[in-house]
Each structure stands twice: as C-alpha cells, then as structure tokens.
Amino acid sequence: MKKAQTAAKKPAPVHYDVSLLTDDDLHLFNEGSHFRLYEKLGSHLFAREGIDGAYFAVWAPDAREVYVIGDFNGWNKTSHPLQPKKQSGIWEGFIPGVGRGDNYKYHICSRFHGYKVDKTDPFALLFEVPPKTSSIVWDLAYTWGDGKWMANRGDGNRSDRPMSIYEMHLGSWRRLPQEQDRPLSYRELAPELAEYMQKMNFTHVEFLPVMEHPFYGSWGYESLGFFAPTSRYGSPQDFMYLVDCLHQHGIGVILDWVPAHFPSDEHGLGYFDGTYLFEHADPRQRIHPDWDSLVFNYGRRELQSFLISSALFWLREYHADGLRVDAVASMLYLDYGRKEGEWIPNKYGGKENVEAIAFLRRFNEEIYKSHPEVQTIAEESTDWPMVSRPTYAGGLGFGMKWDMGWMHDTLSYMSKDPIHRKYHHNQLTFRLIYAYNENFVLPLSHDEVVHGKGSLIRQMSGDDWQRFANLRLLYGYMYGQPGKKLLFMGGEFGQWDEWYHEQSLHWHLLEYPLHASLQRWVEDLNKLYRNERALHQLDFDPAGFEWVDSNDSQNSVLSFMRKDRSKESPVLIVCNFTPAPRYNYRAGVPSGGFWREVLNSDAREYGGSGQGNMGGVEASPIPFHGRPYSLNLTVPPLGAMFFKCKGNDK
Fold it and tell me: Are 438 and 401 spatial neighbours (Cβ–Cβ below 8 Å)?
C-alpha cells in the first residue's frame, strides 16, 4: 500500500461538473432500493479529459459544509469543499491529482450546534492499519482465477450437499514467532490454509468478520468498514487472492457479516453529520447495552440501500459464497438485553422490531434474487419461528440457521460425569423434536471456547484419556446428526487453552499422539460425511433420519440411521456415552448381509482403546427394534461407530 506522503501536494481545485450519480441513482438511494451504492458513493479513481484524480461522494444530509481532507492537501480543512447533489443529501466533487494510496477523511460541518468532525468514508475500500483511522483511495482491480468455481459454486452450496465449515479468526490461526509473533498476511495464509482445508476434508471456511474494525479485541464484530477488508493483513487485492486460492482448491468461503450494531468511535458512522444519521436518536433504541455499541435505524430507507449494498458487495466483488449474519436475535427483539423501561414497544405495543424484520426479509430476498447459488446463515439464539423459511411463506428468508439449542444441550451433557448421564438422556434426544423446523447448522463455534468457558476438550469430563475419547464421541455424534457442521479452529486437534485472539493456535500439540490422533479423526469424519450421501443429502428432510433406539438411557447408548433419497444405502450410527464397553449389544437393521464398520472413534489410530467389531458384523435374521435383522455389536467405551451394509457400498 502507498505510504502517507510526508509533504502535501499543491492543492488542485474541486471540479463539480463531474458526477457518477444519475437521477435514477438518487431516486433509488432515497427510496432504499439502490443495491450497488458502492459504485457511486465513496472515492473512485478515474481520468477526466486527461486529468487523473478521484471523485468523492458522501451522504451527509444535515451537513452545512463538507470538505475532503487528506495527504494531497496537507489535511487542510477548507481547501477542498464538496457540493450538495440536488436534494439527495449527498455531497460530491472531483479532485484532480488525488491518487491510489492517498489517505483522506471528510471534514463535516453540521447545520446544528456548531458541530464539526472528521469522518472516515463509510464506503471506503481500504483503511489505514488501526489504530490509525484514515480512509485510503483504492480500487478493486484484480484478475480472478476461480472462474470454474464461480460457474459451479451453486452445486457446492445446495442444501443437499455436504457442508462442513471450519470457522476461523484470520489473525490467530497461525503466527510467526520469529517475526515478533505477527499474524500471517492474506497472501501468506492462502496456500497454507487451502492445503490444510483439503487435508482435513472441510468443504467451507468461515472467517470471523474481515470488515475493518478499530478494536482488534472485538474479533471484527464491531465493524466500521462495511466495504473494506481489514488492512491488518494486507490490501483488498491480497484478500481477493486468499479467496481466489481457496476457490481454486475447491473450498467455499463464508464471511461473517454484522448488521446488528456498530462501534461509537468518533471517526466512524455515529452522529455522522451532527445528527443520528445511521443510528436511532432515542437512546432506548440507539445504544445496545450488551456491547455498548450503536444500533442501525433499519426503518430508514437510505440505510437499507447502504446495508444491502454491503452484503451484495462481498458476494459480487470478493466472490464470497455465503454470509453468516451475526446476532440476529438482537435485531428481532426491541427488548433484547434491555431491562423493563429501557426499550420502546413497536407501534402494535409488542417487543418485535418490525423494521428489522422487514429489513432482514428484504436482505434475504435481494441476496437470493441476485445470487441464488449462495447461502445466508442466521445466528439466531431464540425460538423465533421460520428463520430459514421463505419470505413468501412468512419466514425471514435465510438459507440456514445455527442450532444453538443443540450446542447448549450437548455441551451440557458432555460436561457431566458419565455416571450421571443416564438422568439427562433427553438432552441428546430432544433436538429431534424440532430438528426439521429449520435448516440447521450444528455449531461448535468460537463463542463456546472464550470468556472462561474453557476449550472444548476442557469441557469434557474425566481424565485426559476420557476427555479425548469424549471429544471424539462428541464429533462422531455431531457428524451423525442431521444438519450441516461447523467447528472452530483448534477444536480439531484438542487445543487445551481457550482461544485467545492475540496468540497463534497451539500447533505444537500435534507432536503429541492424542492430539494428532484427534485431528485424524476429524479428517476422516469429514471424508465420510462428504462421501456418504446418507450423511448429508437429507440433512433438512425428516426422511433422512430414523431412530433405531432413542430410549436406552440406562446404558447411555443412542442408535440411529441416516438415509439418502434412494433409501438403499443407510448408515447406522451407534454412540456409547459411558466409559463402560457394551458387549453383545443388539441393534436392529433393515437388511441382512455384512455391515462394515466404516468408522470407530475407539480405534487405536484415533487414540482409542482398540475395541470394536473386527471390521464389521454379519446381520442375523433376528428381528429387533422393529426391524427384520439385527447386529450383535461390541460398543466401545465413549465410542461412536458408523456402519454400512457392504452390499450397499457405492
């Protein structure tokens, strides 16, 4: 990136006869229907009659004056004024001599209270590396090499395809201790991450928000640059290279996107033109108490243009394959995180945020209208109905939803001493009552390994061997259950410490057999999940699941079948949640023949005790569990096993 200039250029005058904004642009923006707004607002490099420069446009309807300040004019607050564009609230101007890499801000003088402030550009494509705050004039020129992926990405994102997501934080996946522990850049990360994703058989990677954020400790969830990847790891083109590399290696990319709130830093969106432009005026609507951040005014039409343009921007310009929308519950409820008297009911007297609901529905409609091949995924932590159902049916229109209930129940169960688990058997079986109400993703995310919760392996009960066995069992149970899968980085090899964003993952643990064996278990689970249609094709269809025995609480054993559309190649999953092996344990199956043990978490190669069924079991014509045949099994301690009839192997 071009460094800030030490001496200002001779200021060139602003030209007002240059504009990217047509009357149609203004109309669509003001009515909330301009969804390529980043092509019109912000800074844009182009030549005018042989003169190189940059066009600037910013929305500040209650400004009295707006100036562009930056490297090119020595940060002079009055030398380069912009002019209002009709009655749109937008200020614009073309400044010759401004080049790629120039730092800039807008100096805004409000019509109210004598308020003056220097603001970064809401549409900036790049920012200075925090804690510096200037916007940077930039472009998106890049030659992509992922044409094959983009032409077919809808195939990999369909609901009947496997989706195994590796969630990660860019700055702490791997660091370089020999270089003062700095994070890998986007370009350094690209080949290493692509190779690792292929080795581990994940289908997608999900990045915690890459959008520019002033506070590193927010992990990106306090975003201010809704059109800019963070400059901490490189330029926009560097981030494009990372996405491009992943695509060329067959890995989909999902981005976390945060329209629920934004930070109150003075240089950002808050109180932008001396009024509450992006946020609500009333503090009972404006301030989110859980994060002490600001809440967008979803009912304002121009804000709809801004936010939906941002969402589509990452799908179009950065080739993202999906957006995971953070904190949806906080958007849906006016009283979320607020005490009595600290919130304002809607016009019907209820607690539902009708403007946010309308916004989310429109967001999803526009995404799927423009990009039917991608997915939107909601992190919604309540029982709000029909989150992942079409808007025409009364839903919010998301493609998928995180199953937070499954996560809470399952981790609670796995933390219990096995001797007590028989009294909590319903924590495992309850989700099948609601499992098909939504298109669920089963998340073991970053939120489960921070704030004193402990790492996943620390949350397992027992001694070290049992903790590893329990974690392998948890993953086996998870991959057997209907729903797409998500695992946060470090969980695949059993990192002992909580995740900390200022440190690398503890990769040295892979020198120890139990950690390396756990990693191999996750690798093989992903491979089986991807290759067996029965384990993914009907993730969202109740025809794809069938209990064999959900009631054996006394032994703390669960057994169930997963099926594909043909029903001809079912997979039997048997899970023992106690450290006591179960010998001569009978499970009903639909057909005779040899049922091959395709995976066993207790195998020695995964760090287990080596108990199992010697590669498989011949079905006996003994009816059991309402089925004409049955298997006489050895169910290993704290073990998960997958069986498939050999004659049905595909």
Answer: yes
Report helix angle 301-316 to 354-370, nearest 10: 30
The values of phi and psi at residue 645, to 5°, are -65, 125
What letter represents residue 599's amino acid?
L
Positions of CATH 3.20.20.80 in the chain: 147-173+185-535
With CA atoms as reference, report the closest residue to 175 among 185, 165, 167, 166.
Answer: 185
Asked if 129 contacts 3 with a C-beta cutoff of 8 angstroms, the reply is no
What is 147-173+185-535's CATH superfamily?
Glycosidases (3.20.20.80)
Residue 146: strand, helix, or coil: coil
Residue 597 among the catalytic residues:
no
Catalytic-labelled residue, pool 326, 355, 438, 532: 326
Q: What does DSSP say about strands 204-207 and 182-183: parallel, antiparallel, or unpaired?
A: unpaired
One of 212, 256, 302, 379 is an active-site residue; which one?
379
* Alpha-helix residue ranges (DSSP H) falling in 390-543: 404-414, 418-421, 426-429, 431-434, 456-459, 464-480, 513-531
pLDDT in tens, 392-423: 999 999 999 999 999 999 999 999 999 999 99
Q: What is the pLDDT of residues 17-74, one digit of tens each?
A: 789 999 999 999 999 999 999 999 999 998 877 889 999 999 999 999 999 999 999 9
Asked whether the beta carbons of 634 and 581 are under 8 A apart, the reply is yes
**Rounded to two decimals, what is the model's pTM?**
0.95
Strand (E) positions, 514-620?
A: 545-549, 557-562, 571-576, 582-589, 594-600, 616-618
Cis peptide bond upstream of 131, omega within 30: yes
Contacts of 74 (CB under 8 A, 6+ apart): 7, 8, 11
Here the tokens at position 72 are: 């090119």
Delimit the CATH 2.60.40.1180 region(s) of the chain.
542-648
Helix, coil or strand: residue 469: helix
Q: Length of the chain in residues, anyone? A: 650
CB 343 within 8 A of CB 353: no
Instruction: Scan for tokens 């049992």, then name that residue.
Output: 466
Q: Which residues of the chain have pLDDT under 70?
A: 1-11, 15-16, 647-650
Domain range 542-648, CATH architecture = Sandwich (2.60)
Angle between helices 236-248 and 147-157 (to 10 degrees): 70
The sign one gets for the Cα dihedral 465, 411, 409, 603 is negative
Backbone torsions φ then ψ of 587, nearest 5 degrees? -130, 130
Question: What is the number of other CB atoms lying within 10 angstroms of the CB of residue 27?
Answer: 12
Establish whether 373 is a catalytic residue: no
CATH 2.60.40.10-classified regions of the chain: 23-136
Residue 497, number of CB atoms within 10 A of its CB: 15
CA distance 231 to 99: 18
CATH code matching the domain that covers 23-136, chosen among 2.60.40.10, 2.40.30.110, 3.40.120.10, 3.30.565.10: 2.60.40.10
Return d(Cα 512, Cα 514) in angstroms, integer.
6
Of 367, 135, 99, 373, the residue nearest 259 (C-alpha): 367
